[in-house]
Amino acid sequence: MIQEKALIFELSHPGRIAYSLPELDVPAEETASLIPASMLRSEPAALPEVYEVDVIRHYTELSRRNFGVDNGFYPLGSCTMKYNPKVNEDVARYAGFAKIHPYQPEESIQGALELLYQLQQDLAGLTGMDAVTLQPAAGAHGEWTGLMMIRAYHESRGEQRDKVIVPDSSHGTNPASASVAGLTTITIPSTDKGLVDLDALRAAVGSDTAALMLTNPNTLGLFEEQIQEIAAIVHEAGGLLYYDGANSNAIMGITRPGDMGFDVVHLNLHKTMSTPHGGGGPGAGPVGVKSRLVPFLPRPFVSQTEDGSFTLAGGNDQSIGRVKAYYGNFGILVRAYTYMRSYGPEGLRRVSECAVLNANYMMKRLEPYFDVPYPGICKHEFVMSGTPLKKYGVRTLDVAKRLLDFGYHPPTIYFPLNVEECMMIEPTETESKDTLDAFIDTMIQIAKEAEEQPELLLNAPYDTPVTRLDETTAARKPVLNCACS
Amino acid sequence: MKHRYLPMTEQDQQDMLKTVGLNSIEDLFQDIPEEIRFKGDLPVSSALDEYALTSHLSALAAKNANTDQYPSFLGAGLYDHHIPSVINHVVSRSEFYTAYTPYQPEISQGELQAIFEFQSYICELTGMAVANASMYDGATALAEAGSLASAATKRKQLVVSAAVHPESRQVLHTYAHGLDLEIIEIPAKNGVTDMEKLAKAVSGDTAAVLVQNPNFFGSIEDLAAIGDLIHSHKGLMIVSTNPISLGLLEAPGKLGADIVVGDAQPLGISSSLGGPTCGFFAVSKDHMRRMPGRIVGQTVDHNGKRGFVLTLQAREQHIRREKATSNICSNQALLALCASVYMSVMGKQGMIEVGQLNLQKSHYAAGRLAGIPGVKLAFTSPYFNEFVIQLPDGTSVSEVNAKLLQKGYLGGYDLGRSYPELQGHMLVAVTERRTKEQIDQFASLLEGCL
């Protein structure tokens, strides 16, 4: 059995150090002569005292208790857990990118601004939009930025529109972002085909409609075939269309949100553009807009001057303002640009083709063993339901936990909310047929285990550093830090 | 086409299409209406092989003046501290950086424990009871703190000091517009929040006072007095702090702060044109269930073994949707890891020493710069590692900085950019990385520029 891992605080031995600081080479003054005693720390922070080997072994051990894309297949639906290219990591660490300050004179950061400018252009071209801001730090941050622009647009026209329509299959961030933007959410049901119910949409739109937020392909992995009609309904009511770009990996070079009728788009660069998820971040959520929303873009953004140099222009008077300090998650933007240049136009299209074929292949092969509620063609991901296993007392959660024993990260489970016992599977384009086949064979084996030895699933996992954890007690009696002092 | 990241061969493609029951790749997209299918060449930059790619990006990087080559006296929220070598080695472990949010705790104990330790570190430094897993940056953390204070007090007015970072205040304004909150700004006097004006502005309608410590001018605020003032009106004190100052300065939690936020960039995170950095967010116990973002808690597994999980998720968007405390989903976990490794390396003693080095070197530099004829310190308030100098009348800070750049130095922040009344004032940051020789050289170069 794998032993409990000590906290770094538990490794502390007074007197050990892991730091190396410069000598003080200026005359020392009494601290109390520089800062009043009442403002000085009364007792030192109880940080651990360890040496460098402790630090490295501690975090190496922690890393061994973690599973990333480099460890194995990670078909987490809606998260696009594709391979994170190593060259992107190298490039982002170049001193000329990593060790620059946003307030340096502009002439001393021209290379950085040029990269940002080109990325703005490339993302606009990819999505079919007229301009792009790179400021938002993540997808949800981009959603909120886009909704604030939509709100400002309506306000500039003297219209009070505060309703945001979302389908019941939408990401939780959509309604949450609407709330933070001061807007109210209306949720509409999906049809039995998993698509937007046009009648429900027609009934929901009106003079108070600010926007419809849509993911296309949607979270069921289905393309909204009636997107043009959806756009017409919303536009005729005076609303705008917001594109949640979480699922862009399905459509690069194949169709563009701007051509579908969307007015605002955000992209998750940590999904589609391969930047690493980092254990939960950092991401980047650039937002593209059509020309009528350009005046409302956050300040500042990069533009090119007549002499060919690049500058952070002030932005328009109608700008919604600043949404993040400085100029976005630059280090992530560098990685995304590097990624896009590694593929170019044809390559990006091929990425989406492979992602979609991989998903369809998996769905077809798994269909006989699980319930696939929306058969036919999917895009880059698909959903299936664990309901056939319920008769053995086994739930989707148990399937997910059993997968851990075979060295896989499970799919997204229990989302979207409109599919019972849902599993949402997104293989991405960087997985080979061999990997997909091995995973599928494992899933088939687990389905068989559910029938023959359900307790095997109910107690899984077995081969992990810990078994199932008591989440109820964690929430009821929260222990949220080590309370060392 | 073939590509090093794409495994699908012609044979694979044929076999897989056959299984699916389709004839061609095109058939996979038959559900997309013909009129909106993209035709022609996608208008994005062309593909480069790996060597051409790194050459191109090296050339772009080389156009930027980096702080390894140009000694920097620029801070204003992003500081040029020494980054211990071990940090990059830890965050380059791909088990960390290629993972996502730890939704499956059994195979994510490493990340979960690292976050739990990060929360513990932040609580230790700030003197607060509870911290979350991180925020996008210090500016958005401050805005979210304002939102929390409004929800907790059921009041709509936020009073913010003009000595808070200008970009943080701008972000606060953007969020406040969305949430329909009123913002009142209090000017600074002698480099700190004007206490008289603050006392006049605060009332029973005030949800919170938002201050920064050390503030944007580097000065140290009288947090205890500000806390007493707002608490007498039953509002909250929100403090944005520079975490590297907390080896020396009193923990805001001990001075009455209800919410402490800030940017962890000084703790081992590269400046990287301002992002990604890492916001932190800590509160007193009363506000635990109103916090935005991810929180990790300790628990046990079925065998009674200690383990960690994401917890208190009933606050979050994926459960509560429009009723969530925030829309935040992803955070800055990898940068929080940088900060944790930094604090592990520095430990109890190192945090004090690095604070001392910053304090001593900045005061030495202030003395040298104030010795230049026509240059004086703008304020007399105590400061940590950053201070304001006033250049001779009519001097343009941006022109001075352009000249310093030619001499190989990055000068301080031009305060006239954000404070019209502070034209000709430069905000100078001095970290432990600056040597006496560089400080002396900087002083003589600055003198030569005037």
Provide the descriptors you would attach to this structure in a database record.
heterodimer, A: 485 residues, alpha/beta, 7-stranded mixed β-sheet, 3-stranded antiparallel β-sheet, 15 helices, B: 450 residues, 4-stranded antiparallel β-sheet
Largest sheet of chain B, described in full? 7 strands, mixed
**Largest beta sheet of chain A, briefly?**
7 strands, mixed
Largest interface: A-B, 209 and 213 residues
Computed structural class of chain B: alpha/beta
Put simply, the count of helices of chain B is: 13
Strand content of the residues of chain A, in percent? 5-15%
Shape, principal axes of CA atoms of chain B: globular
Give the proportion of residues in helices of chain B. Answer: 25-40%
Mean pLDDT over the residues of chain A:
96
Query: What order do the SSEs of chain B take from the amino end to the carboxyl end, as H and E?
Result: HHHHHEHEHEEEHEHEEEEEHHEEHEEH
Strand order within the widest beta sheet of chain A:
1-7-6-5-4-2-3
Quaternary form: heterodimer
Enumerate how many helices of chain A there are, as a single number: 15
Number of strands of chain B: 15
Q: Which term fits the overall shape of chain A?
A: globular
Strand content of chain B: 5-15%
Contiguous runs where pLDDT drops below 50 for at least 5 residues of chain B: none
Domain Glycine dehydrogenase C-terminal (chain A): 352-452
Enzyme class (chain A): oxidoreductase
Subunit structure (chain A): The glycine cleavage system is composed of four proteins: P, T, L and H. In this organism, the P 'protein' is a heterodimer of two subunits.
EC number (chain A): 1.4.4.2
